[in-house]
Write a structure and sequence with these properties.
- The protein is an all-beta fold and about 350 residues long.
- It folds into three domains: about 120 residues, Immunoglobulin-like; about 80 residues, Immunoglobulin-like (Sandwich); about 100 residues, Immunoglobulin-like.
- It is about 0% helix and about 40% strand.
- It is built from one helix and 26 strands.
- Strands 17, 18, 21, 22, 23 and 24 form a six-stranded antiparallel β-sheet that branches.
- The radius of gyration is 23 Å and the shape is globular.
Amino acid sequence: MKKLIYITFVGLLGMLFACEKDGDQIFLPENPTPPTLVSMPDLTLERNNGTDILEFVGTPVDPGFTASARYFLEACATGDNFTDVTQIMSSNEATSFQISVSDLNSLLLKKFPADEVSSLDFRIRSRLVVDAGTGAPGAADDAFEYISEVHTASVTLYGLPRLDLLNSGIEQKIESALGNGEYDGYVKLDESMSFNLYDPDNDVTYGGRNDVLEENGAAIPPVSTGWHKLSVNLNDMTYELLDYRIGLIGDATPNGWDAPDQKMEYDPQTGLWSITLDLVVGTVKFRVNDDWSGSINLGLGDDDHPEYTLDNLWNSGSSQNIPIDEAGNYTITLSIGSTYSATITKN
């Protein structure tokens, strides 16, 4: 079967360019070798195999010179040409992408139906950085991309057990990725509206106090108004309800580097956090609950870590600020999962 290889990158093939790093000259060969997606697992996903590990096997890009590469395993509906991309995971290695059945199922359910067969295209995209901070082709802000040929596969996802929130003001739920009695999710609450949890599969209502659940128990009071992370374990009848407010902070934002941060909204369907606001020239970062010591401190890499970009944010106190080079109204999205990525779009 004839194979088509899709190669995309900034610059012209066969053109000679130089990137100064310790006096070395970098030459781009005429026919660099893109990564390949060698094999994929069976993608008929089942809940009772939720902890099993799936492996996608690939080969690395060979541009003809030594460079830092980041690899992205991506999927889309067959024939979409990756216009609407689902990023499954990213890695510094192309040889093995490993993800659990439950994590892949939860990720793909955001765009594809449960208990049906869907046709999806898969690929490996490599982002190649020759140097950082030079502004030359192949630098971190103008990286080369090499993309594997597309592999098409039939994917069957499974629906998740859920607990519906009653009397929270909006329709929302938390789900059990493994179907093992453990549920979690992000929920938006009003501190004046206590809520119960309803299991539609078993027609049972739960309530509770002080992190302890009981059937037909009292409504659960929210910690505050806004987004929370709710975890429930029906095996030991406990729950945990925590503030979880992702915010944008920085001298490009209305409050500068001072709290309160510019709070983002969560979309359970897409799994994305987003905000639309006016920004000035400056920089931004992401954090949780107006606190640098929390679990989220997202920014870019430094010269020693050029692999950390908007497609692959660095969750570290060492991460660098994200530049905003032009004032205006922006829509910003953030994906939080096994990796972190963002889009910053000027409206």
